[in-house]
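Lecture 7 notes: from sequence to structure.

We start with a single chain of 252 residues. Read the sequence below before looking at the structure.
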Amino acid sequence: MTSNLNSFDGQTVLIVGAASGIGRATATLIQSRGGKVIIVDVDISGLNSLAKELLLDQKQVKSTDLGNQESIKTLIASVIAENAQIHAVINSAGVVGPTNTKAEDIEWAAFERTVTINLFGAIWLTQAILPHMKANKYGRIAHVASIAGKEGNPGMHAYNTSKAGMIGFIKGIGKEVASEGIVINALAPAVIRTPMNADTSDATLKYMLERIPMGRVGEPEEAAEMLAFMASRACSFTTGFTFDASGGRATY
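Now the structure, written as tokens:
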């Protein structure tokens, strides 16, 4: 076994939300470090594009609906059946949901959809993979949260709620599985240059950018570097934590 703890040689890494943005950059980086990546998304076109770019086998390309628990269970069962072990799971999938919306104007269906995909999906994914990781006495789980989960952004109530809930869930799970060879952490980015922000209102983007001391948006590759560490053997004594990727907006 390699002595380089940042290497993914011999490891299988499941990346949910891999068709674009942070997930795509992370899949590319982890494969470059020797990992076998299984890329997952609802965006089939984006997945096929990435698969072609990375020369992936068709069994390394999976579609799932993060808002559907049975779809997630099927995904995990399929990947386990086709691979000796899932060493790490990285979840960067999510939706922004309504922006620039007053609290009293929240439409429940849109609120519920955002929370279901972002929060429930993360919980269902964690539930599905934990028994496998416990059996192997090893696992790395990394979910992409958001600075909105720490500080809140006005007019983004569903998104704030989903990401704050994710951070709280991860804190508890980290303590629960700490003695079983499994670490689980979150990453809280500020605005990253991804397609996900295409539907975010100009007012909301302006609000978020003005609060970044570095004065710029983050790049997907910068977030990918942190997620790769969180999914590696090098991340061995940090769990239940939320890493920062906000250009200095949050320092806690």
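The beta strands are 12-16, 36-41, 61-63, 88-91, 139-144, 182-189, 242-245. Keep this in mind for problem set 3.
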